[in-house]
């Protein structure tokens, strides 16, 4: 059985993602978009915030994996300044034509991959 199909695991991931979104300072609209929902699907985020498990959807689990990879890379790149690591996605970045990494991530799945790839390359070369 895939661990992402496990209800308890998806509930833990839901809590973890909501904490991460809080650290990043994302709005409900941004949270919904990053997880692949429409910006108007804020009720889904409210359900996750109330402790409901993430939906058992492959793309959603893929996005969560990418987001956790982004956070891991940020912690490796900026280990001594958590505030900077958490605000990095909201700061304009020359690597993304002076867009915020958040703006790139909000473009969709490919945007998430672009930010993850950039950070992975910065960490590991």
Question: Can you offer a commentary on this structure?
Answer:
The protein is built from seven helices and no strands. The chain is mainly alpha-helical. It has one domain. Helix 4 packs parallel to helix 7 (109-124). The longest helix has 20 residues, at 58-77. The relative contact order is 0.13. The model has no long low-confidence stretch (mean pLDDT 94).
Supply the key terms:
single chain, 125 residues, mainly alpha, 0% strand, globular
Blueprint (SSEs and pairs):
Blueprint: H1 7-24, H2 28-34, H3 42-49, H4 58-77, H5 82-87, H6 101-105, H7 109-124
Helix pairs in contact: 2-3, 4-7
Number of domain units: 1
The profile of the biggest β sheet is: none
Strand content: under 5%
- Helicity, as a percent range: 55-70%
Per DSSP E runs of 2 or more residues, the count of β-strands stands at: 0
Give the overall form. globular
Q: What is the N-to-C succession of helices and strands?
A: HHHHHHH
If you compute it from the alpha carbons, what radius of gyration comes out, rounded to the nearest whole angstrom? 14 Å
Count, helices:
7
The overall pLDDT, averaged over residues, is 94
Structural class designation: mainly alpha
Q: How far do the termini sit from each other?
A: 34 Å
Which regions contain 5 or more consecutive residues with pLDDT less than 50? none
Question: What oligomerization state is this entry in?
Answer: single chain
């Amino acid at each position: 059985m895939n661990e992402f199909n496990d209800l308890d695991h998806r509930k833990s991931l839901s809590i973890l993602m909501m904490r991460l979104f809080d650290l990043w300072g994302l709005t409900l609209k941004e949270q919904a978009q990053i997880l692949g929902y429409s910006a108007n699907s804020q009720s889904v985020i409210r359900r996750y915030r109330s402790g409901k498990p993430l939906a058992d959807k492959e793309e959603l689990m893929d996005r969560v994996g990418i987001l956790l990879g982004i956070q891991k890379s940020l912690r490796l790149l900026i280990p001594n300044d958590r505030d900077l690591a958490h605000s990095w996605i909201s700061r304009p970045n020359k690597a993304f034509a002076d867009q915020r990494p958040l703006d790139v991530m909000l473009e969709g799945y490919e945007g998430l991959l672009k930010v993850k790839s950039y950070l992975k390359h910065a960490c590991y070369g």
